[in-house]
Design a protein that fits this description.
Elements lengths: L4 H13 L3 E3 L5 E2 L5 E2 L1 E3 L8 H19 L4 E5 L4 H10 L4 E4 L12 E2 L7 E9 L3 H12 L3 E10 L3 H9 L4 E6 H10 L5 H12 L8
Parallel strand pairs: 5-6, 5-8, 8-9, 9-10
Antiparallel strand pairs: 1-4, 2-3, 6-7
Amino acid sequence: MLLNKNTAKKTAEVLLQINAIKLNLKTPFTWASGWKSPIYCDNRILLSFPAIRNYIKEQMANQVIAHYKKPDVIAGVATGAIGIGALVADYLNLPFVYVRPEAKSHGRKNKIEGLLEQGQNVVVIEDLISTGKSSLNAVKALKDAGANVKGMMAIFSYGFDIANQNFKKEALTLVTLSNYQNLLEQALDTNYINETELETLSQWNANPSNWSVN
């Protein structure tokens, strides 16, 4: 997983600034996977802050070009990355499509919404990477539709080992604006968390599937 240190620090700063990062060490959040987590990252809230969404949009677009060159199409993963993906596509003056978790059960029964042609080069946009499973399912759908997926660009990654393994297995490059390590560093520097909370958050990140409140 590739990132730029300066961008990672600034991205963590703005996510904390708009309270996209929620902490609850006493009553943890429950993820869809069933994991208990003392932290929840809601990147969709950044769409409500014009200056910050513009910063994220421009940084993602610049990183797409730097790492993948200009693709033919930008694809967002539903639903969290539809908004930011469309903004990145607009900034780069590129077509945009988005990928549903499942095909619609009615109408045209699409899984990919928008015009995607065989052989087109695609960069996938995500808001958040946890295990990478749903993100890579979207990549598979695009490949099955005949797309040439160049790689993925995400706002934030929790940095789990399982995600690293999943992306390595699929031989897919992932570039992120920031990650969990940079988030914790920034949160500590700005007194968003204290040393005790840092220890708890680090322990959770090391073994999220088995973590529990002491």
